[in-house]
Amino acid sequence: MDTFEAISTRRAIKKFDPNHKMTSEEVDSLMKLTILSPTSYNQQNWRFVTVTDQSIKEKIGVAARNQAQPVDGSLVILLCGNMSAWKDDPLRYWKNHPTEKQELVKASLEKKYADSPQNRRDEAIRSCGFAGQTIMLAARQMGLDSCPMVGFDYDEMAKIIELPDDHLIVLMIVVGKSLEPAKQRGGQLRLDEVVFKNKFN
Length: 201
Ligand SMILES: Cc1cc2nc3c(=O)[nH]c(=O)nc-3n(C[C@H](O)[C@H](O)[C@H](O)COP(=O)(O)O)c2cc1C
Known about the structure:
The protein is an alpha+beta fold.
């Protein structure tokens, strides 16, 4: 499958095959690709909770207002932002580069995030957005399907996954084998409603 095909065949799946399981090697392959997703300053501020345990998936299903996907899908991934990543031993984000580069990045991170909860939160959301698309496209290449989801009770989910205080749940993605094709697309907007050449006016 090439990239264009992965993009155009990715759909938000409602019914997953409850009998399909992913091996831990498959989950690891998917997550190894996922952590190649871009983050600002390479701060890698996403944290992923990968759930395959059926009893936890069922609790997640209840928190997701009884939507079926987390219960029937093979893998549930909670994409979370670590809003302390900017100060969490930041030299390691450029460990392959000279010390001067590492120190430069550390200073830039401090400048941008130390006094701005908004920047920390925005960055968490941006990073998890990119990672989410990587997960869904890589899943297609592995012959799997997915559903991105935010229809869940945040506090309940935070309790289930024991979310640390300085982390934010950005979204959940269920990966698995589709039991039936997605319905016809809702309908994309016209290109000229959403794409502006050079500027808005
Ligand atoms: C942030 C986000 C949250 C979503 N939450 C849910 C959800 O809770 N339940 C669900 O069935 N679909 C959910 N969806 C799927 C969207 O409804 C779906 O992506 C959209 O209708 C476009 O369809 P497509 O993904 O098949 O192209 C969500 C999608 C996104 C991006």
